User: Fold this.
Amino acid sequence: MKLVTIDTGRGGVPGALLASGEILDLHRAAAPETPETWIPATLRELIAGGPGGIAIVRGLVARVEAAEAETRSALCASGVLRDAATTRLRAPIPGPRIVIGGGLNYRSHLREMAGTPEPARPTGFLKAISSITGPDTVIRLPPQAPAMVDWEGELACVIGRACHDVTPREALGCIAGYTVVNDISARDWVDDVFTATQPWEARLTWELNIMGKQFAGFTAMGPAITTADDIGDPNNLTLETRLNGDVVQHVHTSDVIFGFAESVAFFSRWYSFLPGDLVTTGTPAGVGAGRKPPRYMKLGDVRGGGGERHRDPAQHSHCMIGVERRSAVATGRIRSNCQFVKPTRFELDAER
Assistant:
């Protein structure tokens, strides 16, 4: 099942992406005097309801999908059932408490970045909540660092149950679902990390590199969360990112050094996770900074953002992520078409 947050202008309400490609407003679709009236006002609260809450939503979705044409037409007329092409979505979890961006976790990415050695433990960093954006948004290129903006297509898990200091086995049971994150990164400070001659010099320049991931809009998320039971093994997917139609990242997720179970368990030694928090895998090979010569996004480029779909084309959802620099010369926009294909293919598919 695929869950979204519908943008209402003043906030967001939980929805579901149906097999038809339509989006269902879950709160408004709930039948009176049934367990469906439990459905809360936010997707974060819905996820916190655990398997029982997910089961209620799954039953509601099944009821609507099985409805007669006349009933569905009435739902469309009332705005309960919406056309995905004209429905604006927010990030699936617009304001999580914690977003941990995994790092140094794909073997292929370590090789392309000057042969970086494999870490002995998971590594990561916090992403600013103010950097989160969803589909169909425009991201302004930061005027202080507009020239080396890079893409990082990543798979992320969404925590569904409070956990702290858990084992890897326990951690896997705390994951409610998976979504897509673009860890957009200004690379202006990467070279300084590799040319540093003293440990503290490398440490300080690395901190600047992490700061280059915190600009507004630099955590592009969604559009949907696919529930864990529909994914199965997250290490049995193919991740692909395209830029202007070119495949720039293509890797099987088994290339990770540490899977979600290990990463969530490790970070939970310090962080107390709650439903709606996110942890990403980090990025695979193919980033612009790892190319010779380097390749970065520029005005007018089309790139992958984040999104999901099953094999049925009707379940395809679009995510547009814009990059805009305000100047007297030019204004550019990135349009991305993002896909997830079950069971073994995951795409961030951008097309102009």
Summary: The longest strand covers residues 175-183.
